[in-house]
Fold this sequence. Notes:
Blueprint (H helix, E strand, L loop, with lengths): L1 E6 L2 E8 L2 E8 L2 H19 L9 H15 L2 H18 L13 H13 L14 E3 L2 E3 L3 H20 L27 H10 L5 H10 L3 H5 L6 E2 L4 E4 L12 E4 L4 H14 L19 H12 L8 H13 L4 H8 L4 H4 L9 H7 L6
Antiparallel strand pairs: 1-2, 2-3, 4-5, 6-7, 7-8
Helix pairs in contact: 2-3, 3-5, 6-7, 6-10, 7-9, 7-11
Amino acid sequence: MGAIFKRGRVWYIDVRSGGHRIRKRVGASKEVAILALKDAEVKIARKEFGFYNPTMGVEDFFRKYVEYSRANHATSSTKRYASVIDNFRLFLRTRKDVENLEQISTEVIEEYKAFRKDHWIGPRNGEDKRQPRIRGGEQSGAKAKTINFELNALRTVLYVAVKWGYLTENPLKNVQRLKLTDSKRIRFLSAKECHALCMASPDDLLPIFQTLLLTGMRKGELENLEWADVDFKRRKIMIRRKLFWQPKTGEREIPIGSQLLPILRRLDAANSKGLKSNFVFPHKDGSRIKVKLRDQLIKVAQAAGIKDLSSIHALRHTFASQLVMNGVDLPTVQRLMGHSDIQTTLIYAHLAPDHLADAVDKLAIKV
C-alpha cells in the first residue's frame, strides 16, 4: 500500500489515501520510518473499512467544539478556548494545505509554536503591526508561558476530537512545552505588606482580602463561594462545581485556619440578620459580587504604600509563598492551591532554599 524512501540522510513514507498521495518526512532512522509506514497503513485501512469516522473539516470541528464548550464549561473557560482557537486559525492562514483534522500533525503543531513566537497577536485576535511587542530591541510574539497555555488548550480540544472519533491520535500527544525563560518574577506580599494592606482596607473589602490571603483561593472561586460550601463543623471550605460555574482544576477542600474562622463566623452572623444571601461575599442586592476587585486592590495598595501590586492573583501567590517559606512541603502546597501539575507549584521552590538540605539531613543511614 505504501513505501519508504530516503533522500540524503532523511527517510520518508509514501502512501495513498482517498485518492491522494501523501509523502511525509520521518527522520534519520529507517526502523522508525518502517514503523511510521505501518502505522499510516493501519490508519488508512481503518478508514477504508469503516472503522473510522468520515473526515472532519478543521473549521467545522472548531465550531462544534465551541458549542460543546458552552454547554459543558464555564463562560470564562469557553472564552479562553475560543481565543486559542482563533489564534490557531490565524496560523492556518499560512498552511492552506491543512483543511481537515487529520492534516493537523505533530509537525504542524511545531510550526504553530514557531509562528506564535514570531507573531504578535493583538487583543482582537489579529496580527497587530501597529503595536508590536518589543523585546531586546526586536519585535517578537507570545511568551513561552502563553504558548504553553495555548498548547495545553489545543491538546484538550483535540482530545475531544479523538473521543468523538474524528482522530485516532492526538497530534499534541508528544509535543513538548517550551522552557520558561521569559517568565516574570512572582509578586507576593511580605508579612509586613499583608498587615499594611489589611489595615488600609475598607470594611467591605477587608474580609475579601483576608480570605484570599488565608486560603489561596482563585478570584473566581471566591466570587462563586456559597455558604453551602462552608462547613464550620469540619472547618473546611469546599471548592466544588455548580450549575452556573465550574472550578478551573476540579474540586478540592481548603482548611479553615484559626485566623479565618472568626472572620467567616462574623460574615455568617451578619448575613443571617441581613441579606440572607447564598453567597459568602455578595453584591448589595444578595447576588454574586460585582465589585471589580483588581481596581479596588490597586487603590488600597496605593493607600497602604505598597508598590507593584496590581493583580488579585498576587494574594494567591502570597498564600503559597508564605507556606513554602514556613516549611510546608510542595506536594501539600499543590493540594491546597489546586494545581493539577506539580510543575506549577515548583515556581515557589526557590523560596525554600534549605528544604533539600534539610531533607538530606534527616537520613538515618549509618555509613
